[in-house]
C-alpha cells in the first residue's frame, strides 16, 4: 500500500481522522493559501476561502474515492471555493466578476500583506486582464510550477488545452507588460 493511500485511510478512519487532518493542514495550508490568494487577491478573503476549503475537505474526505491524487482533489476544492467566493462578493456588490477582479487589483497596494513592488503590481494587473481560466492556468504554471499533467487532473481537462491556454496567457501578459 502506498503512502498516499495509507494517509487517506487515516483521514477516513474516525479514530485517526483528527490527527491525520492536522498533518494534512501542515502539508497543504501554505500552498493552498497562495493558490487561493492568486485567485481572490485579498489576504483576508484568501484566509476565509482557505478555511472554507478545509471545512469542505474535512466533511467530504469520507467520500473521496482516490480517483485522483489527494493533492489534485484539494486544489480543485480550493479553486471552486475561490470562484464561489468571488461570485458571491460580486453579486453582493452588484458588479460583474471582472469589475470585482479589477477592484481587488486596484486595492492591492493598500493590502498590508502585499509585499510586491511596481513590477509585481503591473504583473498582477496584466494577469487580471485575462479570462478566468487563463488566469488560473497561468498562475498554476508560472507561480505554482505545476506540471501540465497535475493541472489536467485538477482542472479535469487535457494537457494540450492547458498548454494552449498558458501560451496564449503568456503572450497577452507580455503584450500588456511591454505596452506604454
UniProtKB/TrEMBL annotation:
Domain RNA polymerase sigma-70 region positions: 25-90
Keyword DNA-binding found: yes
Keywords tagged on the record: DNA-binding, Sigma factor, Transcription, Transcription regulation
BP-aspect Gene Ontology terms: DNA-templated transcription initiation
Family annotation (Pfam families): Sigma70_r2 (PF04542), Sigma70_r4_2 (PF08281)
UniProt keyword Transcription present: yes
PROSITE patterns: SIGMA70_ECF
Record-level Gene Ontology MF annotations: DNA binding; sigma factor activity
RNA polymerase sigma factor 70 region 4 type domain: residues covered: 121-172
Cross-referenced Gene3D superfamilies: 1.10.1740.10, Winged helix-like DNA-binding domain superfamily/Winged helix DNA-binding domain (1.10.10.10)
Family stated for the protein in its record: Belongs to the sigma-70 factor family. ECF subfamily.
Protein name, entry field: RNA polymerase sigma factor
Species in which this protein is naturally found: Winogradskyella epiphytica
